[in-house]
Structure formats: C-alpha cells, structure tokens
C-alpha cells in the first residue's frame, strides 16, 4: 500500500490478538504500522510486535525489491513496535538505528543491548537527509512513554506521529467505521493520562504544514487533517467532546440498573444523547471512553460491604488514573439498610479537578418507590437544565 509515491506501508494487521496491552478487548484486531521511505537513502520507520515478525519482514523485503534499508527510525520502543527490532537488525546488519537518547538507554531492558553500538541518538530539531526527503525529529516524551519521538518529513509534509492519532482495529481497504470511535477508545485508554505532553506535541506540530499523518496504529490520515488535530486537542485538554450523558451503573439484584434505565429513558425522551454502561458486564475501557466523550456522567451504584459496588470503585479508579476532570457528576445510590454508595463515590472522586455535582442525589432503599422515583425525575430535570 502506497502512502505517497515514495512512502510505502509495510505494517501488519493482528487479527488474532484478544487483549491489547493484556487488557483491552479487540473486536476487530489492531495494526502495527511500519513505513518505508524510498529515496537515495532508505529509511524504515519502526518495527512491529513480535507476534507478527515474520509477516513484517516479508512485507519489508518485498517493498525493498532487492534494496537494503540504510536506517530504521524507532519512534517508540514499547513491544508492540519494538518487538521485531533484533530480527530486522540481524537481517540487515549494515542498517543504522535512529532514536532518542532515552530510547538508546532503554534498549538493554528489552534484550537489545547489543544494538546500542549501531544506534544514533537524535535530539529535538535534529534532521536526517535521505536525498529529496528530510526527516526532522521532535521529541515527544510521555506521548505514551518517555523515549517517544515523532518525525516530520519536510518534502511531502508527512508527520510520523508514533502512538498519537492511532486507533484500534485492523486496517481494511473498505473500512467505513468512523475513525473517532476507535481512536477515542485508543487515545483515552492508552494515552489519556498524558494530556499535557500531547498538548505540547500538538503545539510543535502546529508549526508545520501537515498533509499526511502516519501513526503507529490504524490508517494513515490523508484528508481533513484539522479534524484529527481538533479531536486530539479536545481529548488532550480533557474538554467534553460532545453534549450527552453517560449513565454508568453497578447493580447487585437489578434495582439500581432499573433506576439507571428509567433515567436514561427520561433523558432520551427529552432529546438527550445517552449511553448506559453496566460496569460488571460492559468492558471498563468502553465506559471510560464514554465518560470522556460526554459532558455529564451519572454514577449509579449499590452499597456493598459498607462501601460501594466493586465495579464502580474500579471504574472511578480508572477515571482518576486518566486524569478525569471538567465534568458534571450525578449520583444514584442504593442501600437496603445503610446506604453508603454516594458518600463513598464522592470520596473516591476527591482530587479530580473541576468536577461539579448535581444537587439532586437519588437514594433507593432496595427498590424504587414513589419517593425515589420523584428523586429520579428531579435529577433528570437538573441534568437537562
Ligand atoms: Fe502502540 Fe505505546 O505503543
């Protein structure tokens, strides 16, 4: 697959993977991207996960058509990208490695210590001329890991963006799934904690005209570049992406879940966009992504062992690790003799910046009754105000 006349995609799809990073379920696989820049000097951009070494080596060899790469540029050493480095370096012993100084220092951790002698450490603003193409290196520490850098190819205005602008899902020719859904899941769950470093990278990127973004996962982005930049600006600044309500609930016997669904109906009937997540059944990563997507979040949970339903505790923990902030929160609690869920959820949310809370908190004693249904209606009204 050609990205431009002289940039060729040589990455691979992984359709067999069940959990990305050992925790995120993949319903449509994931791609590990790699590109070749063909010029007087040839640069290979990143390797791939060791799960796909053989297929990747074959892709590279085919695209090289008898030539040899002069450089491999390593933007990110995490094993989903660095996993095949040793294999490619053995295959092309003359090839030099180009990476950040931090990446060089980390090589040995992955068993690649012997490659350090072949590595050139680059820093912010360094360039590498390939002939017509010139790569400009920009350091992007913590745009997932500390050793990350991105590179900008000047002649064709291509940004090789490492994990940034990636998405879950294998690359398919006729993929008509909206980019933002899988990209949001990917960004919030994988990179979401590091909004500040992403903002820094966006500011650096804004200084250059960009025609194409080549990320390490998902398709190369070739049109409406501002759309992708704007999404990343929203996500990394923790601003709500759209108006809407996530109702996330944990329920022992179904009564809290019933209240969550009644509230959802009340809001939907008023024209609101609503997502409902059963935290014990829906995957946490989907609920986390929706919490960052919408401007309002309702947390509905049973009391459990004097605290809150464990899946809700886990959900709030996940939100906090991703720097959850700038949202309006409503609470629904259930407790048959000593409701403690609302108090516990409030305590767990302490430390999140810029949260506002609805005045109406719903308390259910086992099952909904007239009083708690009235509280639900009052909460719906407040959320719609
Ligand atoms: Fe796709 Fe941070 O690795």
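^ Assign residues to that structure.
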């Amino acid at each position: 697959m050609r990205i431009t006349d002289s940039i060729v995609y040589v990455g691979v799809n992984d359709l067999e993977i069940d959990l990305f990073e050992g925790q995120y379920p993949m319903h449509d696989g994931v791609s590990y991207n790699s590109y070749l820049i063909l010029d007087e000097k040839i640069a290979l951009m990143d390797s791939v996960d060791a799960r796909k070494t053989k297929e990747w080596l074959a892709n590279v060899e085919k695209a090289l058509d008898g030539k040899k790469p002069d450089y491999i540029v390593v933007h990110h050493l995490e094993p989903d990208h660095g996993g095949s480095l040793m294999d490619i370096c053995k295959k092309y012993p003359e090839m030099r490695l180009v990476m950040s100084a931090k990446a060089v220092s980390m090589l040995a951790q992955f068993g690649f210590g012997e490659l350090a002698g072949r590595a050139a450490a680059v820093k912010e603003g360094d360039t590498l001329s390939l002939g017509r193409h010139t790569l400009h290196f920009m350091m992007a520490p913590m745009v997932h890991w500390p050793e990350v850098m991105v590179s900008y190819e000047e002649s064709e205005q291509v940004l090789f963006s490492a994990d940034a602008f990636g998405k879950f899902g294998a690359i398919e020719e006729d993929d008509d799934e909206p980019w933002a859904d899988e990209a949001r899941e990917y960004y919030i769950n994988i990179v979401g904690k590091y909004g500040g470093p992403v903002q820094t990278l966006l500011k650096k990127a804004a200084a250059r005209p960009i025609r194409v973004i080549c990320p390490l996962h998902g398709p190369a982005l070739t049109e409406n570049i501002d759309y992708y930049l704007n999404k990343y600006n929203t996500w990394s600044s923790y601003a709500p992406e759209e108006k809407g309500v996530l109702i996330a609930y944990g329920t022992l016997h179904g009564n809290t879940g019933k209240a969550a669904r009644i509230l959802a109906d009340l809001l939907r009937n008023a024209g609101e966009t609503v997502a409902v997540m059963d935290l014990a059944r829906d995957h946490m990563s989907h609920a986390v992504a929706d919490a960052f997507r919408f401007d309002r979040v309702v947390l509905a949970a049973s009391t459990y062992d004097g605290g809150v339903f464990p899946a809700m505790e886990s959900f709030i923990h996940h939100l906090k690790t991703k720097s959850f902030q700038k949202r309006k929160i409503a609470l629904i609690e259930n407790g048959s003799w000593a409701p403690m869920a609302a108090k516990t959820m409030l305590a767990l949310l302490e430390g999140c910046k810029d949260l506002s809370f609805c005045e109406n908190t719903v308390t259910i004693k086992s099952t909904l009754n007239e009083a708690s249904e009235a509280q639900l209606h009052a909460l719906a009204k407040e959320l719609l105000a």
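The longest helix spans residues 255-269.
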